[in-house]
Each structure stands twice: as C-alpha cells, then as structure tokens.
Specification:
It is built from two helices and 17 strands. It has 310 residues and is mainly β. The strands form two sheets. The protein has a twelve-stranded antiparallel beta barrel. It has a four-stranded antiparallel sheet with strand order 9-10-13-14, with no helix packed on it.
Length: 310
Amino acid sequence: MATGTLNSRRKELPVLFAAMSLMAAETAFGQELELRTYANTPTGINIFALGYTHSSGNVFLDPALPVNDLDGQLNIALVGYARTFSLLGRNAKFKTFLPYAFGDWKGTVSGVPETRDASGFGDMRVKLEWNFYGAPALNAEDFLSWKQKTIVGGSILIVAPTSQYESDEFINLGSNRWVIRPEVGVSRSIGKWTLELVGNVWLFGENDEFLVDNTLEQDPLYVAKGHVIYTLRPGLWLGLGLGYGNGGRTQFNGVPKNTGQDNFRFSVTGAYPINRQHGLIGSYTRAQNSGAGAEFNAFTVIYQYAWGGD
C-alpha cells in the first residue's frame, strides 16, 4: 500500500473511534438504548468522555424505581473512561463512568404530596463487553481492512451504590443497592446499514434502608431492544432505537406492590467526528409506560477524546 494511501486511511481511523458510541445512552437510567455496543473496535484505544443530560418527567437516578404521578427536572453531568483490549483473541471493552446530578421533583407518591431538591454524585457504573463471535481483536492498522458481517457478544454491567443516600427521603440520587445487568446482543452489517438485537435482565439487590428502616426488594426487569443504524461515512452515523421492558415488581417489607413495569423507550442518536481524536454524540430518548416506572424526555450530548491504538 502506498504511503499516501495509508496515511489517508489512518486519518479515518479515529473517526471510527467516535463511532463506538461507548457511553452515549448509558447516562443514568435503566433500560438504556445503547446503539453500537457490539461494534468491533481496534484494541488499545482509550476514550475519555464528558457528557450532559437533561430530562423532564417522571425520572430518577435509581435504575428502575417504580413511581407514578411525579414531575421532575433532572440534570446529569458525567465523566467516563473506556478502553478496548483483546480477550481470548476477541474484541472486548471496559467502561466506567460516574454521574453528578442535580434536580427537583414535585407530585404525589402513594397519596402523599412530595417535593425534593437534591444534588450530588449518582451511583458508579462499571461494564465489561466481549464480542465472542465475528469480532477478532485487531490492532489499528489491521482493523482498516476488516469488514463487519455478523457479531455476537455479551456484557455485564454493575451499578455500585456509591452515591450519598438519605434514608428518610423517598427520592434520592442513588439506589442504595447493588444492581447487575447481564446482556447478549447480535449486530449484523448490510452495506451502510447495521441491525442490532439485544436482550438483558436487570437483577436488583435489596435496599434495607428504604424510608429509614424498611426493606425494598424488586423482581427482575426483562428488556428487549432493537436498533437500526445508517452510516453516512466512517464515524458519521444516525441510529434509531426501540426498547421494551417488563417486570420489576417491588416488595415493601415482603409485601408485593402493584408496581409491575410495562415500558417502551424510543431514541434517535447521531455521531459526528470532529477530527482524528475528538467526537460528539447526541441523542434524544422518549420513555413511555403503561404500568409503573419512569416516563420522560431526555436530551444527551457526549464529548469523547480518543488516544492510543497505534
């Protein structure tokens, strides 16, 4: 390959880094629509991310707290880091991020008027992704000639209760419980189109300090998602996402409540590469439910800086 051609293609490579969409939808809510999670990426890439989300409606930082008849304005700033690497010869990613939130809520909870203003750190998230079929671990130069067909992968997300928690308040910026979300996904590329199908389940630990000294438990929340992505050029793409979640019924001191969730979420996401190392990702998400759970509009913008992978 001629030097000029190689240099030209190397200039496109960081554009692919921006296309990873490592944290665009993983802001703070359960049942996120995370487009391009199972895309292959060069190994040895580091990504630093700064983001902001504004949400309005029945919205919380607890991944699946089932509350109705509450109106809130929630702002989230997040800082995150991600790295791609080889795991058993296949592409893998490690991600972690921490949100800082401030918001206010008002409405009625179980017939009782409720208002709340709060600010502080939310719960930290750590995630491991592994594409175990169709996505070999490649360095940056070898990745240039690789073409995606079908990729199958899985991931584990852990939400750690790192935020300050006030047990006498119903609404908090964290959930005071551990949450684990295993997931599997399939990604298929057809020309400039990419189709993704994803399934996961949210598994909730118990909060034994709910409203001072009560115990809150929650059944698993099952989620199915589908994404359609169109790539205009490397790194510049638009995507639509649709998600459905069912389950998540809570028990208060062992007594089941009528809080089962039956939720839909829709998102529009776009990625724009600024140059070889810098990129922007923006998204709009609408959450709708026919049971308990969050119902909101959210706008997110993420700035990403990538380095490494030579």
